[in-house]
Structure formats: C-alpha cells, structure tokens
Amino acid sequence: MGNIVSVTEVLRCLGIPSQVVTNYYSAHDNDGNPKTDIILDENGRIDRNRTRDSIWNYHCWNECYMSRPDLPAGFGGWQVVDATPQETSDGMYRCGPASVQAIKHGQICFPFDAAFVFAEINSDVVFYSRSKDGTMAPVKVNRTHVGRLVLTKSPGNVTRRDITDQYKFSEDVRELVVVESKSYMKRLVEQANLHFIVTGKIRETGQIITAMKVVTLQNPKLIVRVSSGGKVNEEMIVSVEFTNPFSFSLEGVYIRMEGPGMMTPKSQYYSLITGGSSLTWTEYFTPERAGTSRVIATLDCPALRQVYGQASVTIKP
C-alpha cells in the first residue's frame, strides 16, 4: 500500500491529478485470458495443483488523469497505473497506463495492459471438470463475482466514493449462499473473509454443479474519544475503549494509537481480555501545531485482526 500512496503523491507533485482505487474481489489472471479458471477433479473438488488463477479479497492501484493521443478520441481521462503490478508486461513488472473508458467498453487491445486490468474487474469465473484422461469441460460460469465494488476516496473528506460504474456496466446478482461464521472463527486470517466454493455431483448423470460466495465478517470496533477544545501546546486526553464481544478470551492483545502531527505513536499490551469484558486505555498528549487531524487506534492479537477506530480532532492556534 505504501508504493500506491507514494506514486499518487509523486504524480500530484508533478501536477497530474491522481487517486488511489480499491477493487474488491479482484481477479489475478496468470494465463493471459480474461477468465478466472478453476479446475475441479472428477469428484468435484478443486484441483489446486492445476488451478493457477486466483481471486484476491481486494487489490489497490493508482489512477492518473491524462490525455491519450495514442488512442482514439474519448479514451483519455482517468488511466490505471499500478504501482504494485501482479504480472510482468513485456518482461518487466509494470502495468499501465490503461484507459478506464477502454476497460469499461471492453477495448482490451488498447495499450497498455488493458486486458489484464479488464480481467481484474470483469473476469468470468469458469469452473471446469477434469476427467481422468485429462479432458476438461466447463460446468459453471459466474459472471458477477469479480469486481463487486470499486472505491476511491471522496475529495475533501474521509468518506468513500463508489466508482464501479466507471469501470463496468451494472450486473445482476444471481447467487446467494447462507453460512454460519462461528464454525470458522479459528480459521480466519487478517481480512476476516470466508471464501466458499460449493460443488456437488449428480450421481445419476455425473454432472457437476457448483456455486461460490464470499462472506465478509464484521469485526468489533474500537471507540476513540478525544477531549474537546484542543489548542496548540495545551494538554489533551485521548481514550480508547474496547469490549470483547466473544464468549472466549483474547490473548496477547496489542492496542496502538497515533495522531499524525499531534502525538507520537503509543502502544499498550494486554495479556488477557476475558470474554464479554471491557477496557479503557487513556493517554495524555500535547499538540504542537494547529489544524485538523485524526487519532487512529488499532487492535491486534492472534485470534482477531483488522480492528480499528478513529476520531477527528481540530486543534486551534
């Protein structure tokens, strides 16, 4: 993410409008076609040795605003330039500039790397059944899973802006899978997403059927409170509150807070937070400059990730 932000800053310093974009359920194409190929064995299980394509929970890239005299009229404007390219382009790890308008309208032959970016946003997920003799037959196509949501930051504030319609035309949602997340708590990693691929085989006909669903679990939040009436060189108070919503205890918990331009990073360690219990951590700080900023707090432990909270602060001279 650091490279993405740095490229945005460099482009803006050069006078080129730029922004960071996040694509949710972003396809990672390895074989140069605009499809995500998932290979199933004869029993309907994913053949992970032969499945090379993948789908990431999200992927970030940059956009920059420029003219494209090398393309037909109408394909200038916002262009994708990825500071963290996933594949090589002409032997080098680079991606773009690729016209956003070209991607939306399927003009994947335009330079540069439009086909790869198109697959990230619009890739069809195709399930293939592989028989013992190595022949493969498509058994399912999901056209709505990839590129569910494309976001950037709204100008002038910290809210998000949905720009999905700039990359693709609207699609109908065709599938729904209901699951209970509590059975998978111990298997979660940082993003707290469950990716389910359900397959079945009809005994009488041998036909394989399949469906896919990503379930995003809601993490608890940290509550951050900052004392009002902040002024430069006057002491202020910030507190972080957290309640363990689970029936089990959280062990090895680190809580960190920082306020860019206002306070140095601070951290607190808790060896155990029992289920259902609450805590409050309070710190003092003295802002050294006026302006609007935020105090951001994060919680991290082996059983729980991506827990955060924030509070806006305005410091007067």
Strand order of the largest sheet: 7-4-3-1-10-11
The assigned structural class equals: mainly beta
Gyration radius, to the nearest Å? 24 Å
Proportion of residues in β-strands: over 45%
* Poorly predicted sequence stretches spanning 5 or more consecutive residues: none
Name of the CATH architecture of the largest domain? Alpha-Beta Complex
How much helical structure, as a percent, in the residues? under 10%
From the N-terminal CA to the C-terminal CA, the straight-line distance is 33 Å
CATH class of the largest domain: Alpha Beta
> Globular, elongated, flat, extended or rod-shaped: what is the shape?
flat
- How does the major sheet shape up? 6 strands, antiparallel
Secondary-structure element series: HEEEEEEEHHEEEEHEEEEEEEEE
Question: Quick summary of this structure?
Answer:
This protein has helices spanning 2-13, 100-104, 114-122, 164-167; strands at 18-28, 35-40, 54-66, 77-81, 88-89, 92-93, 98-99, 124-130, 136-142, 149-153, 160-162, 193-201, 208-216, 223-226, 236-243, 250-259, 263-273, 278-285, 291-301, 304-315. It is mostly beta strands and 317 residues long.
